[in-house]
Protein backbone atom coordinates (compact mmCIF):
# COMPACT_ATOMS: atom_id res chain seq x y z
CA UNK A 1 0.00 0.00 0.00
CA UNK A 2 2.83 2.38 0.89
CA UNK A 3 4.38 1.84 -2.51
CA UNK A 4 1.08 2.80 -4.16
CA UNK A 5 1.15 6.13 -2.37
CA UNK A 6 4.76 6.56 -3.39
CA UNK A 7 3.76 5.77 -6.97
CA UNK A 8 0.89 8.25 -6.85
CA UNK A 9 3.21 11.02 -5.71
CA UNK A 10 5.75 10.15 -8.37
CA UNK A 11 2.80 10.00 -10.77
CA UNK A 12 1.81 13.53 -9.79
CA UNK A 13 5.29 14.62 -10.69
CA UNK A 14 5.23 12.81 -14.01
CA UNK A 15 1.74 14.09 -14.91
CA UNK A 16 2.93 17.59 -14.33
CA UNK A 17 5.91 17.02 -16.64
CA UNK A 18 8.44 16.51 -13.90
CA UNK A 19 10.08 13.48 -15.38
CA UNK A 20 13.30 13.97 -13.48
CA UNK A 21 12.52 12.00 -10.37
CA UNK A 22 15.31 13.06 -8.11
CA UNK A 23 14.53 10.57 -5.40
CA UNK A 24 14.76 7.62 -7.81
CA UNK A 25 18.07 8.91 -9.10
CA UNK A 26 19.43 9.31 -5.60
CA UNK A 27 18.21 5.84 -4.67
CA UNK A 28 19.89 4.29 -7.72
CA UNK A 29 23.11 6.12 -6.95
CA UNK A 30 22.90 4.89 -3.37
CA UNK A 31 22.41 1.26 -4.48
CA UNK A 32 25.30 1.53 -6.96
CA UNK A 33 27.52 2.97 -4.23
CA UNK A 34 26.66 0.10 -1.87
CA UNK A 35 27.46 -2.42 -4.61
CA UNK A 36 30.93 -0.91 -5.08
CA UNK A 37 31.46 -1.41 -1.36
CA UNK A 38 30.65 -5.13 -1.71
CA UNK A 39 27.48 -4.92 0.38
CA UNK A 40 25.39 -8.04 -0.17
CA UNK A 41 22.15 -7.83 -2.17
CA UNK A 42 20.22 -8.99 0.88
CA UNK A 43 21.63 -6.11 2.95
CA UNK A 44 20.91 -3.63 0.15
CA UNK A 45 17.29 -4.82 -0.08
CA UNK A 46 16.97 -4.41 3.67
CA UNK A 47 18.30 -0.85 3.52
CA UNK A 48 16.07 0.12 0.58
CA UNK A 49 13.03 -1.35 2.37
CA UNK A 50 13.92 0.77 5.36
CA UNK A 51 13.97 3.88 3.17
CA UNK A 52 10.56 3.04 1.71
CA UNK A 53 9.19 2.85 5.28
CA UNK A 54 10.69 6.23 6.10
CA UNK A 55 8.30 9.22 6.07
CA UNK A 56 11.23 11.51 5.18
CA UNK A 57 11.29 9.99 1.69
CA UNK A 58 7.63 10.90 1.12
CA UNK A 59 8.10 14.34 2.65
CA UNK A 60 10.94 15.01 0.22
CA UNK A 61 8.88 13.82 -2.74
CA UNK A 62 5.87 15.87 -1.69
CA UNK A 63 7.99 18.97 -1.13
CA UNK A 64 9.60 18.51 -4.53
CA UNK A 65 6.19 18.17 -6.17
CA UNK A 66 4.89 21.38 -4.57
CA UNK A 67 8.03 23.34 -5.39
CA UNK A 68 7.87 22.28 -9.03
CA UNK A 69 4.10 22.83 -9.29
CA UNK A 70 4.33 26.38 -7.92
CA UNK A 71 7.31 27.10 -10.16
CA UNK A 72 5.44 25.91 -13.27
CA UNK A 73 2.12 27.68 -12.67
CA UNK A 74 1.77 29.47 -9.36
CA UNK A 75 -1.84 30.56 -10.07
CA UNK A 76 -3.14 27.07 -10.89
CA UNK A 77 -1.46 25.45 -7.89
CA UNK A 78 -1.89 28.40 -5.49
CA UNK A 79 -4.31 26.38 -3.32
CA UNK A 80 -1.36 24.15 -2.37
CA UNK A 81 -0.02 27.04 -0.28
CA UNK A 82 -3.05 26.63 2.00
CA UNK A 83 -2.53 22.86 2.24
CA UNK A 84 -0.16 21.55 4.86
CA UNK A 85 0.74 17.87 4.47
CA UNK A 86 3.18 16.02 6.66
CA UNK A 87 4.09 12.37 6.25
CA UNK A 88 4.88 10.68 9.54
CA UNK A 89 5.11 7.40 11.36
CA UNK A 90 2.34 6.80 13.89
CA UNK A 91 3.44 4.69 16.81
CA UNK A 92 0.89 3.65 19.40
CA UNK A 93 2.07 2.09 22.64
CA UNK A 94 -0.12 -1.01 22.72
CA UNK A 95 2.37 -3.23 20.87
CA UNK A 96 0.82 -2.48 17.50
CA UNK A 97 3.25 -2.11 14.61
CA UNK A 98 4.06 1.43 13.54
CA UNK A 99 1.98 2.90 10.75
CA UNK A 100 3.16 5.16 7.97
CA UNK A 101 0.69 7.87 7.07
CA UNK A 102 0.10 11.55 6.74
CA UNK A 103 -1.48 14.50 8.45
CA UNK A 104 -3.27 17.02 6.23
CA UNK A 105 -4.54 20.44 7.17
CA UNK A 106 -6.14 22.77 4.63
CA UNK A 107 -7.45 26.18 5.53
CA UNK A 108 -8.77 28.84 3.18
CA UNK A 109 -10.76 31.91 4.02
CA UNK A 110 -11.92 35.19 2.57
CA UNK A 111 -11.99 38.02 5.10
CA UNK A 112 -12.93 41.68 5.23
CA UNK A 113 -11.46 43.90 7.97
CA UNK A 114 -12.83 47.25 9.10
CA UNK A 115 -12.42 49.54 12.11
CA UNK A 116 -14.46 51.82 14.35
CA UNK A 117 -13.32 54.37 16.94
CA UNK A 118 -12.64 51.93 19.76
CA UNK A 119 -12.61 48.49 18.12
CA UNK A 120 -11.91 46.62 14.91
CA UNK A 121 -14.15 44.07 13.13
CA UNK A 122 -13.74 41.31 10.62
CA UNK A 123 -16.10 39.11 8.62
CA UNK A 124 -14.82 35.97 6.98
CA UNK A 125 -15.96 32.86 5.12
CA UNK A 126 -13.75 29.82 5.57
CA UNK A 127 -13.21 26.26 4.37
CA UNK A 128 -11.19 23.86 6.53
CA UNK A 129 -10.20 20.21 6.13
CA UNK A 130 -7.93 18.32 8.50
CA UNK A 131 -7.17 14.80 9.64
CA UNK A 132 -4.76 11.89 9.87
CA UNK A 133 -4.64 9.14 7.25
CA UNK A 134 -2.68 5.94 7.87
CA UNK A 135 -1.75 3.89 4.81
CA UNK A 136 -2.96 0.87 6.78
CA UNK A 137 -6.27 2.19 8.10
CA UNK A 138 -6.40 -0.37 10.92
CA UNK A 139 -3.28 1.16 12.46
CA UNK A 140 -4.47 4.78 12.49
CA UNK A 141 -4.30 5.93 16.14
CA UNK A 142 -6.17 9.20 15.49
CA UNK A 143 -8.77 8.21 12.94
CA UNK A 144 -10.77 11.47 12.78
CA UNK A 145 -11.30 13.68 9.74
CA UNK A 146 -13.15 16.98 9.75
CA UNK A 147 -14.21 19.15 6.81
CA UNK A 148 -16.15 22.35 7.48
CA UNK A 149 -17.39 25.63 6.09
CA UNK A 150 -18.02 28.58 8.38
CA UNK A 151 -18.78 32.28 8.60
CA UNK A 152 -16.87 34.17 11.30
CA UNK A 153 -17.61 37.56 12.84
CA UNK A 154 -14.76 38.88 15.00
CA UNK A 155 -13.98 41.93 17.12
CA UNK A 156 -10.63 43.19 18.39
CA UNK A 157 -10.05 45.72 21.18
CA UNK A 158 -6.96 47.49 22.53
CA UNK A 159 -3.33 46.70 21.77
CA UNK A 160 -1.70 50.14 21.62
CA UNK A 161 -2.44 53.36 23.52
CA UNK A 162 -2.56 56.53 21.47
CA UNK A 163 0.00 59.06 22.63
CA UNK A 164 -0.94 62.69 23.39
CA UNK A 165 2.03 64.16 21.57
CA UNK A 166 2.02 61.97 18.49
CA UNK A 167 4.50 63.58 16.16
CA UNK A 168 7.40 63.96 18.58
CA UNK A 169 6.83 60.39 19.85
CA UNK A 170 6.92 58.99 16.31
CA UNK A 171 10.17 60.83 15.64
CA UNK A 172 11.75 59.68 18.91
CA UNK A 173 10.79 56.08 18.17
CA UNK A 174 12.44 56.33 14.77
CA UNK A 175 15.69 57.58 16.36
CA UNK A 176 15.63 54.74 18.91
CA UNK A 177 14.99 52.22 16.14
CA UNK A 178 18.01 53.55 14.21
CA UNK A 179 20.18 52.72 17.25
CA UNK A 180 18.56 49.35 17.95
CA UNK A 181 19.22 48.18 14.38
CA UNK A 182 22.96 48.35 15.10
CA UNK A 183 22.80 46.26 18.30
CA UNK A 184 24.15 42.70 18.02
CA UNK A 185 23.24 41.39 21.48
CA UNK A 186 19.62 42.05 22.38
CA UNK A 187 20.32 41.08 26.01
CA UNK A 188 23.13 43.64 26.40
CA UNK A 189 22.77 46.52 28.86
CA UNK A 190 22.68 49.03 26.03
CA UNK A 191 19.95 47.11 24.19
CA UNK A 192 17.82 46.73 27.31
CA UNK A 193 18.11 50.45 28.00
CA UNK A 194 17.10 51.31 24.44
CA UNK A 195 14.17 48.88 24.58
CA UNK A 196 13.04 50.43 27.88
CA UNK A 197 13.05 53.87 26.25
CA UNK A 198 11.28 52.43 23.23
CA UNK A 199 8.52 50.89 25.35
CA UNK A 200 8.11 54.18 27.26
CA UNK A 201 7.14 55.84 23.99
CA UNK A 202 5.34 52.95 22.29
CA UNK A 203 2.77 52.18 24.94
CA UNK A 204 1.35 48.70 24.43
CA UNK A 205 -1.81 47.61 26.21
CA UNK A 206 -3.85 44.44 26.54
CA UNK A 207 -5.45 43.23 23.33
CA UNK A 208 -8.74 41.33 23.44
CA UNK A 209 -10.38 39.28 20.72
CA UNK A 210 -13.56 37.27 20.35
CA UNK A 211 -15.37 35.72 17.43
CA UNK A 212 -18.64 33.96 16.71
CA UNK A 213 -18.74 31.42 13.90
CA UNK A 214 -21.81 29.49 12.73
CA UNK A 215 -20.49 26.42 10.91
CA UNK A 216 -21.43 23.23 9.10
CA UNK A 217 -19.05 20.29 9.24
CA UNK A 218 -18.70 16.69 8.13
CA UNK A 219 -16.84 14.43 10.55
CA UNK A 220 -15.74 10.94 9.55
CA UNK A 221 -13.14 8.26 9.98
CA UNK A 222 -10.69 7.74 7.16
CA UNK A 223 -12.67 5.09 5.26
CA UNK A 224 -15.99 6.93 5.82
CA UNK A 225 -17.53 3.88 7.52
CA UNK A 226 -18.52 6.36 10.26
CA UNK A 227 -19.85 9.79 9.30
CA UNK A 228 -21.81 12.55 10.98
CA UNK A 229 -22.85 16.11 10.14
CA UNK A 230 -22.25 18.74 12.79
CA UNK A 231 -23.90 22.12 12.33
CA UNK A 232 -23.08 24.39 15.26
CA UNK A 233 -21.67 27.58 16.67
CA UNK A 234 -18.03 28.21 17.57
CA UNK A 235 -16.92 30.93 19.99
CA UNK A 236 -13.27 31.97 20.17
CA UNK A 237 -11.80 34.01 22.99
CA UNK A 238 -8.33 35.46 23.28
CA UNK A 239 -6.42 38.02 25.31
CA UNK A 240 -2.81 39.13 24.90
CA UNK A 241 -0.86 41.16 27.43
CA UNK A 242 1.69 42.87 25.20
CA UNK A 243 3.12 45.14 27.88
CA UNK A 244 5.90 43.55 29.93
CA UNK A 245 4.84 42.69 33.51
CA UNK A 246 1.24 43.73 32.97
CA UNK A 247 -1.25 42.31 35.47
CA UNK A 248 -2.95 40.22 32.78
CA UNK A 249 0.32 38.42 31.97
CA UNK A 250 0.40 36.96 35.51
CA UNK A 251 -2.78 35.00 34.69
CA UNK A 252 -0.81 33.03 32.11
CA UNK A 253 -0.07 30.22 34.59
CA UNK A 254 0.98 27.80 31.84
CA UNK A 255 4.03 29.98 31.17
CA UNK A 256 5.33 29.96 34.78
CA UNK A 257 7.58 26.86 34.50
CA UNK A 258 9.00 28.15 31.22
CA UNK A 259 9.61 31.61 32.70
CA UNK A 260 11.69 29.85 35.38
CA UNK A 261 13.61 27.92 32.69
CA UNK A 262 14.24 31.10 30.70
CA UNK A 263 15.55 32.82 33.82
CA UNK A 264 17.75 29.85 34.85
CA UNK A 265 19.27 29.52 31.39
CA UNK A 266 19.86 33.27 31.13
CA UNK A 267 17.54 33.53 28.12
CA UNK A 268 15.69 36.25 30.04
CA UNK A 269 17.65 38.54 32.36
CA UNK A 270 14.76 38.59 34.82
CA UNK A 271 11.76 36.37 35.61
CA UNK A 272 9.27 37.31 32.88
CA UNK A 273 5.87 35.78 32.21
CA UNK A 274 4.99 36.11 28.53
CA UNK A 275 1.56 37.68 28.35
CA UNK A 276 1.67 37.25 24.57
CA UNK A 277 1.40 33.46 24.95
CA UNK A 278 -1.91 33.39 26.80
CA UNK A 279 -3.74 30.54 25.02
CA UNK A 280 -6.62 31.19 22.66
CA UNK A 281 -9.70 29.20 23.62
CA UNK A 282 -12.28 27.79 21.24
CA UNK A 283 -15.70 26.67 22.49
CA UNK A 284 -18.07 24.78 20.21
CA UNK A 285 -21.73 23.92 20.54
CA UNK A 286 -22.71 21.33 17.94
CA UNK A 287 -25.89 19.53 16.94
CA UNK A 288 -24.52 16.18 15.82
CA UNK A 289 -26.48 14.29 13.14
CA UNK A 290 -25.04 10.77 12.81
CA UNK A 291 -25.47 9.38 9.30
CA UNK A 292 -23.37 6.24 9.41
CA UNK A 293 -22.29 4.73 12.73
CA UNK A 294 -23.00 1.06 13.42
CA UNK A 295 -21.51 1.15 16.94
CA UNK A 296 -23.86 3.95 18.00
CA UNK A 297 -26.82 2.27 16.33
CA UNK A 298 -26.09 -0.95 18.20
CA UNK A 299 -25.78 0.92 21.51
CA UNK A 300 -28.80 3.22 21.27
CA UNK A 301 -30.98 1.43 18.72
CA UNK A 302 -31.13 4.54 16.53
CA UNK A 303 -29.09 7.33 14.95
CA UNK A 304 -30.94 10.25 16.55
CA UNK A 305 -29.19 13.64 16.58
CA UNK A 306 -27.61 14.81 19.86
CA UNK A 307 -26.04 18.02 21.26
CA UNK A 308 -22.30 18.17 21.89
CA UNK A 309 -19.90 20.57 23.58
CA UNK A 310 -16.38 21.05 22.24
CA UNK A 311 -13.36 22.81 23.71
CA UNK A 312 -9.97 23.37 22.13
CA UNK A 313 -6.95 25.36 23.21
CA UNK A 314 -3.35 25.73 22.09
CA UNK A 315 -0.31 26.94 23.96
CA UNK A 316 3.18 27.68 22.73
CA UNK A 317 6.03 29.44 24.43
CA UNK A 318 9.71 30.08 24.04
CA UNK A 319 12.10 28.08 26.25
CA UNK A 320 15.68 28.78 25.31
CA UNK A 321 17.97 30.01 22.56
CA UNK A 322 21.13 27.94 22.06
CA UNK A 323 23.42 29.64 19.52
CA UNK A 324 21.04 30.14 16.57
CA UNK A 325 18.64 27.39 17.63
CA UNK A 326 15.36 28.39 19.32
CA UNK A 327 13.56 25.75 21.38
CA UNK A 328 9.78 26.04 21.82
CA UNK A 329 7.23 24.14 23.86
CA UNK A 330 3.95 23.48 22.03
CA UNK A 331 0.72 21.93 23.29
CA UNK A 332 -2.83 21.41 22.06
CA UNK A 333 -5.85 20.03 23.92
CA UNK A 334 -9.25 19.06 22.48
CA UNK A 335 -12.30 17.94 24.43
CA UNK A 336 -15.67 16.70 23.15
CA UNK A 337 -18.63 15.86 25.37
CA UNK A 338 -22.02 14.56 24.27
CA UNK A 339 -24.67 16.33 26.38
CA UNK A 340 -27.31 14.15 28.06
CA UNK A 341 -25.76 11.06 26.50
CA UNK A 342 -27.74 7.78 26.79
CA UNK A 343 -26.45 5.50 29.54
CA UNK A 344 -25.28 2.89 27.03
CA UNK A 345 -23.11 5.47 25.29
CA UNK A 346 -21.68 6.75 28.60
CA UNK A 347 -20.94 3.21 29.82
CA UNK A 348 -19.12 2.47 26.57
CA UNK A 349 -16.87 5.51 27.16
CA UNK A 350 -18.12 7.14 23.98
CA UNK A 351 -19.74 10.22 25.52
CA UNK A 352 -16.47 12.05 26.22
CA UNK A 353 -13.40 12.26 24.02
CA UNK A 354 -10.29 14.20 24.85
CA UNK A 355 -6.98 14.47 23.06
CA UNK A 356 -3.76 16.08 24.26
CA UNK A 357 -0.55 16.53 22.31
CA UNK A 358 2.64 18.32 23.29
CA UNK A 359 6.00 18.74 21.60
CA UNK A 360 9.41 20.28 21.91
CA UNK A 361 10.39 21.84 18.61
CA UNK A 362 13.58 23.48 17.43
CA UNK A 363 14.31 26.06 14.75
CA UNK A 364 15.80 23.50 12.38
CA UNK A 365 12.59 21.47 12.49
CA UNK A 366 13.57 18.73 14.91
CA UNK A 367 10.71 17.76 17.18
CA UNK A 368 9.78 15.24 19.85
CA UNK A 369 6.08 14.84 20.50
CA UNK A 370 3.75 12.90 22.73
CA UNK A 371 0.00 12.49 22.26
CA UNK A 372 -2.58 10.91 24.52
CA UNK A 373 -6.32 10.37 24.29
CA UNK A 374 -8.90 9.85 21.63
CA UNK A 375 -10.98 11.88 19.24
CA UNK A 376 -14.57 11.06 18.22
CA UNK A 377 -14.66 7.74 16.28
CA UNK A 378 -11.49 6.45 17.95
CA UNK A 379 -12.46 3.20 19.61
CA UNK A 380 -9.81 3.45 22.31
CA UNK A 381 -7.43 5.85 23.88
CA UNK A 382 -3.86 5.70 22.59
CA UNK A 383 -0.54 7.14 23.53
CA UNK A 384 1.40 8.14 20.42
CA UNK A 385 5.01 9.19 20.33
CA UNK A 386 6.66 10.65 17.29
CA UNK A 387 10.07 12.02 16.56
CA UNK A 388 11.36 13.57 13.38
CA UNK A 389 11.72 16.70 11.30
CA UNK A 390 9.10 19.13 10.04
CA UNK A 391 9.43 20.27 6.45
CA UNK A 392 8.25 23.36 4.69
CA UNK A 393 6.20 22.44 1.66
CA UNK A 394 6.33 25.53 -0.50
CA UNK B 1 5.97 41.46 21.22
CA UNK B 2 7.91 38.47 22.64
CA UNK B 3 7.82 36.82 19.21
CA UNK B 4 11.56 36.61 18.52
CA UNK B 5 14.77 36.85 20.50
CA UNK B 6 17.32 37.78 17.86
CA UNK B 7 18.98 40.98 16.68
CA UNK B 8 17.85 42.76 13.50
CA UNK B 9 20.52 41.12 11.29
CA UNK B 10 19.48 37.60 12.28
CA UNK B 11 15.73 38.23 12.50
CA UNK B 12 15.13 38.60 8.76
CA UNK B 13 16.08 35.00 8.08
CA UNK B 14 13.88 33.56 10.79
CA UNK B 15 11.02 31.46 9.51
CA UNK B 16 7.46 32.31 10.52
CA UNK B 17 7.24 29.07 12.48
CA UNK B 18 10.11 30.39 14.64
CA UNK B 19 7.84 33.08 15.99
CA UNK B 20 6.28 32.37 19.35
CA UNK B 21 2.67 32.58 18.18
CA UNK B 22 3.02 29.80 15.53
CA UNK B 23 1.83 26.56 17.12
CA UNK B 24 2.03 23.73 14.59
CA UNK B 25 0.11 21.38 16.90
CA UNK B 26 -3.05 23.47 16.97
CA UNK B 27 -5.69 23.27 14.27
CA UNK B 28 -5.16 25.51 11.26
CA UNK B 29 -8.33 27.27 12.33
CA UNK B 30 -6.81 28.34 15.68
CA UNK B 31 -3.48 29.13 14.03
CA UNK B 32 -5.15 31.45 11.52
CA UNK B 33 -6.88 33.27 14.36
CA UNK B 34 -3.58 33.66 16.21
CA UNK B 35 -2.07 35.05 13.01
CA UNK B 36 -4.98 37.47 12.62
CA UNK B 37 -4.52 38.69 16.20
CA UNK B 38 -0.80 39.29 15.52
CA UNK B 39 -1.59 41.06 12.22
CA UNK B 40 -4.16 43.27 13.95
CA UNK B 41 -1.61 44.19 16.63
CA UNK B 42 1.11 44.92 14.05
CA UNK B 43 -1.34 47.19 12.21
CA UNK B 44 -2.05 48.92 15.56
CA UNK B 45 1.63 49.41 16.27
CA UNK B 46 2.41 50.74 12.81
CA UNK B 47 -0.48 53.19 12.58
CA UNK B 48 -1.42 54.14 16.14
CA UNK B 49 1.98 53.74 17.75
CA UNK B 50 4.36 54.70 14.94
CA UNK B 51 2.36 57.10 12.76
CA UNK B 52 2.30 55.01 9.56
CA UNK B 53 -0.43 55.42 6.93
CA UNK B 54 -1.67 52.87 4.40
CA UNK B 55 -0.15 53.23 0.95
CA UNK B 56 -2.54 54.80 -1.55
CA UNK B 57 -3.89 51.54 -3.03
CA UNK B 58 -4.03 49.71 0.31
CA UNK B 59 -6.85 49.51 2.86
CA UNK B 60 -7.17 47.65 6.16
CA UNK B 61 -8.49 44.47 4.52
CA UNK B 62 -5.59 44.29 2.05
CA UNK B 63 -2.97 45.12 4.68
CA UNK B 64 -4.20 42.59 7.26
CA UNK B 65 -5.05 39.90 4.75
CA UNK B 66 -1.60 39.97 3.18
CA UNK B 67 0.05 39.82 6.61
CA UNK B 68 -2.15 36.87 7.64
CA UNK B 69 -1.22 35.01 4.42
CA UNK B 70 2.44 35.24 5.35
CA UNK B 71 1.95 34.61 9.07
CA UNK B 72 0.11 31.34 8.34
CA UNK B 73 2.78 30.11 5.92
CA UNK B 74 5.52 28.38 7.89
CA UNK B 75 7.92 28.49 4.97
CA UNK B 76 7.90 32.28 4.76
CA UNK B 77 10.60 34.35 6.45
CA UNK B 78 10.38 37.40 8.68
CA UNK B 79 11.96 39.39 5.85
CA UNK B 80 9.06 38.35 3.58
CA UNK B 81 6.72 39.85 6.16
CA UNK B 82 8.89 42.98 6.34
CA UNK B 83 8.81 43.38 2.58
CA UNK B 84 5.05 42.96 2.54
CA UNK B 85 4.62 45.51 5.34
CA UNK B 86 6.84 47.94 3.43
CA UNK B 87 4.50 47.62 0.43
CA UNK B 88 1.39 48.26 2.53
CA UNK B 89 2.43 51.10 4.86
CA UNK B 90 4.07 54.48 4.47
CA UNK B 91 5.96 54.94 7.70
CA UNK B 92 6.63 58.14 9.62
CA UNK B 93 9.42 60.16 7.94
CA UNK B 94 9.55 57.63 5.08
CA UNK B 95 9.97 59.31 1.72
CA UNK B 96 7.38 58.20 -0.86
Instruction: State the total count of DSSP E strands of chain A.
Output: 13
Q: Which value, in Å, is the CA radius of gyration of chain B?
A: 13 Å
Beta-strand level of the residues of chain B, as a percent range?
under 5%
N-to-C series of helices and strands of chain B: HHEHHE
Q: How is the quaternary structure best described?
A: heterodimer
Provide mean pLDDT of chain A, rounded.
80
Helix share of residues of chain B?
A: 40-55%
- Calculate the terminal CA-CA distance of chain A, rounded to whole Å: 26 Å
Tell me the domain tally of chain B: 1
Q: How widely separated are the two ends of chain B?
A: 28 Å
Q: Can you summarize the main beta sheet of chain A?
A: 13 strands, antiparallel
What coarse outline of chain B follows from CA principal-axis ratios?
Answer: globular
Question: What count of helical segments of chain B does DSSP give?
Answer: 4
| Category from helices, strands and their pairing of chain B | mainly alpha
How would you explain this protein's 3D organization?
The complex is a heterodimer of chains A (394) and B (96). With 394 residues, chain A is an alpha+beta fold. Chain A has helices spanning 2-15, 22-36, 41-52, 55-72, 166-180, 189-201, 256-264, 294-300, 343-347; strands at residues 83-92, 99-115, 120-134, 145-160, 204-220, 227-229, 232-241, 280-292, 306-322, 325-338, 352-362, 366-373, 382-389. In chain A, helix 1 packs parallel to helix 4 (55-72) and helix 5 (166-180) runs antiparallel to helix 6 (189-201). The longest helix of chain A is centred in the N-terminal third of the chain and has 18 residues, at 55-72. Chain B is mainly alpha-helical and 96 residues long. Chain B has 4 helices and 2 strands; from the N terminus they run H-H-E-H-H-E. A two-stranded antiparallel ribbon of chain B has the order 1-2. At the A-B interface, strand 2, strand 3, strand 4, helix 5 and strand 5 of A face helix 1, helix 2 and helix 3 of B.
Amino acid sequence: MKKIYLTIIIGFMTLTSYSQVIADKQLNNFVEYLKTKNVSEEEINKMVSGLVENPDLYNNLWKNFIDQALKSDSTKWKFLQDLNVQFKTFQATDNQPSALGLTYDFNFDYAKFSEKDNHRNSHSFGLTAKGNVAFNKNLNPTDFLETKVDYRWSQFFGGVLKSKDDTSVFTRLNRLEDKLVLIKDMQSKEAIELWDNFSNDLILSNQYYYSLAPKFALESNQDFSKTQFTPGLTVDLSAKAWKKNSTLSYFNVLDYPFAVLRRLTGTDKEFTIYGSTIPTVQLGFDYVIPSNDTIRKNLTGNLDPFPRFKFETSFRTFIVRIKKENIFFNANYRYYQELNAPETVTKSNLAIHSYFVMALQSTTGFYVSYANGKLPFDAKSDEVYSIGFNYKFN
Amino acid sequence: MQQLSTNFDDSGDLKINDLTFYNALGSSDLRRQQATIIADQLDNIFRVGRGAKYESDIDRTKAIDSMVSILTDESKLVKDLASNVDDSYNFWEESK
